[in-house]
Amino acid sequence: MPRLESGVGNSALKAVVWQMVFVTHLRFRRTWLAQGRSLSIRMIGYPFTSILGLILVTGILVATWWMDRMRITILSGLAWLACVSLAYWVWEKRRGPLLPSALSSESGLARVGTDPAP
After folding, report:
1. What is the model's pTM?
2. 114 pLDDT exceeds 80?
């Protein structure tokens, strides 16, 4: 059985985090611009650079599976991601749903059963 070395166990999680960064960036810009807003900062090569980054990081993550000593990073990373996702789901269930009117609000998000911010 491969030994989990310091810093190696979270390599898959780092790749997943970068995947989420790329996906979030693509969705944010598309949604923001669809709302008729403009962005003061332009990213060189958008959207191709974000798509390329997503493809490359995904390739690294997939290639990790075929490296015997690194396979544990994917398995432990998926287990950790499942635990964190479950904890988040439980946390959000206890806090209550967002108010529908708050979703389009510029001032932030409000939860059901809370007073709106002044």
Report:
1. 0.64
2. no
